[in-house]
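A sample copied in:

***
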Amino acid sequence: MTLEEQITAAVEAGVERALRRVLEERPVNDSILTTDQAAESCGRAEKTVREWCRAGSLPATKRGGGWRIRRTDLDRYLAGETPPSVALLTRVD
């Protein structure tokens, strides 16, 4: 096996392990919600949830003209935790 083949095999094995770890850590019930579903789930107005998304305080993705929110991010936000995707973007001086 050449050095290039050994490096390729090592990289592929590392990527496979990393992907497996990510999939194992992902919650089984990590559903994707619309703003309407998220609002109903937490007892808030849909407009409020959209404002959270727009402000970036609740991680969300714009899809098909509306916001999509991971259930785990909503739960963390409501619990007062800063979801990891927002924490990475928070500037610390």
About this structure: Helices lie at 3-25, 35-42, 46-55, 71-78, 84-87. Residues 87-93 have pLDDT under 50 and may be disordered. The longest strand covers residues 66-70.
